[in-house]
Amino acid sequence: MKPADLPLDRQLPADLPDEDEIEGAKSRYTLIVTLARREKLTVRELIGRLGGGRGHRTFSGTPEQVADAIQDWFDAGAADGFNIMPAVLPSGLEAFADQVVPILQQRGLFRTEYTGTTLRDHYGVVARGNGLRNLSLHRDFAGADQLTRTTSLPTARPSSIT
Q1: Angle at 84 between CA 80 and CA 88, to 5 degrees
Q2: Which of 110, 120, 132, 144 could form a disulfide with 125 if both were Cys (CB 3.0 to 4.6 A apart)?
Q3: 135 - beta bridge partners?
Q4: Given a cut of 50, is residue 153 above it in pLDDT?
């Protein structure tokens, strides 16, 4: 089926190909078709819905409504983080930070302070040292330069990142 065969102001046709017949993003195809059928969207409405987020869930509303949507997804285990992509920068991001973040903080869903000074500190990752500090340059018997580790580094990785 060609895109030109889809009337913009009608719902998706019943005879769309099955997921098995699709090459590429099969699960994304199924999610989009399911969304269109469940909400009885026309092709035009579906394009409008997917245009901004390229198939990812998008939503807008009052600061409370946006916070509610984020909390619903988080509480359901559907997401553990979000990418905020406002339509306008920087004002859209500033509005989110100024109006939505405080609501999320009041609900205990967004930190109010950081525990350290680096990203590694914030995620609880133990510093392993810089491996480049522990390398030295020497010449092997054939005259080729080689880097050799002069001290060993711990190889254990943290069991979880919190």
Answers
A1: 175
A2: 120
A3: 149
A4: no
- pLDDT category at 141 given cuts 50, 70, 90 is low
- Between CA 162 and CA 156 the distance in angstroms is 17
Taking every pair of C-alpha atoms in the chain, what is the biggest distance, in angstroms? 76
For residue 119, which amino acid is it? L
Give residue 159's pLDDT.
39
Number of Cα atoms under 13 Å in the Cβ half of residue 37: 10
Strand ranges (E), 8-86: none
- Contacts of residue 92, defined as CB under 8 A and 6 or more positions apart, other chains included, come to 86
Cβ within 8 Å of residue 137, ≥6 positions away: 145, 146, 147, 148
pTM of the complete model: 0.49
Distance, first Cα to last Cα, the chain: 47
Average pLDDT over residues 106-116: 89
